[in-house]
Amino acid sequence: MKKQFFNSKKEQDIINVICNWSEQFFSQEVCGFVGVKNDIYTAILCHNKSRSPKNTFTIDPVDYLFFVEEYEPIFIFHSHVVGDEKFSKEDIIMSENSCLPFIVYSLNTKKLNFHQPKKTRIPIESVNKFKK
Ligand SMILES: [Zn+2]
């Protein structure tokens, strides 16, 4: 899938686009970033490089570098095609290792879930705004 960008000042719009992308590309886990620049949020949908994209996701490190150079990071998002909105062990490890909060959207339950890593520069308030 092609890299896509979505901009908005509203947290709810960002959450909506994550859900919409997840539903649109339902055959695989979608993944990407949300950051902010000049008070405008940007959601970036990245290519899922995983060999089993229905069950896991892998983001290209180059996409990550582009993202952190351009935007103040807030969180990484992905979708779950299989199962519910519970994070996998791998999700938690990735969130802890990247020091970035994670948001997941489950296609089955239509629910979101949030994970805040123990070590992060991102204030919890920035993420909490997306919980509405
Ligand atoms: Zn996951």
Summarize the structure.
This protein is of the alpha+beta class. It has helices spanning 11-24, 61-70, 89-98, 124-128, and strands spanning 4-8, 31-37, 40-46, 72-80, 102-106, 112-115. The protein has a single domain, classed as 3-Layer(aba) Sandwich (Cytidine Deaminase, domain 2).
- Apparent shape: globular
Number of helices: 4
How much helix is in the residues? 25-40%
Number of strands: 6
Order of helices and strands: EHEEHEHEEH
Strand coverage percent: 25-35%
Mean pLDDT: 96
Order of adjacent strands in the largest pleated sheet: 1-3-2-4-5-6
CA-based gyration radius: 13 Å
Which CATH class is shown?
Alpha Beta
Number of domains: 1
Main sheet summary = 6 strands, mixed
Structural class: alpha+beta
Q: What would the CATH topology be?
A: Cytidine Deaminase, domain 2
CATH architecture: 3-Layer(aba) Sandwich
Through-space gap between termini: 29 Å
What binds here, in terms of ligands, is: zinc ion
In CATH terms, the superfamily is: Cytidine Deaminase, domain 2
Low-pLDDT stretches: none
Furnish the topology, listing elements before pairings.
Blueprint: E1 4-8, H1 11-24, E2 31-37, E3 40-46, H2 61-70, E4 72-80, H3 89-98, E5 102-106, E6 112-115, H4 124-128
Parallel strand pairs: 4-5
Antiparallel strand pairs: 1-3, 2-3, 2-4, 5-6
Bound molecules: zinc ion.
The site of zinc ion (ZN) has 6 residues, from strand 4.
Describe this structure in words.
There is one protein chain. By secondary structure, the chain is of the alpha+beta class. It has one domain: 3-Layer(aba) Sandwich (Cytidine Deaminase, domain 2), CATH 3.40.140. Helices cover 30% and strands 28% of the residues. It has four helices and six strands. It has helices at residues 11-24, 61-70, 89-98, 124-128, and strands spanning 4-8, 31-37, 40-46, 72-80, 102-106, 112-115. A six-stranded mixed β-sheet has the order 1-3-2-4-5-6, sandwiched between helices. β2 and β3 form a beta hairpin. It is globular, with a radius of gyration of 13 Å. The termini are far apart. The model has no long low-confidence stretch (mean pLDDT 96). Bound molecules: zinc ion. The site of zinc ion has 6 residues, from β4.
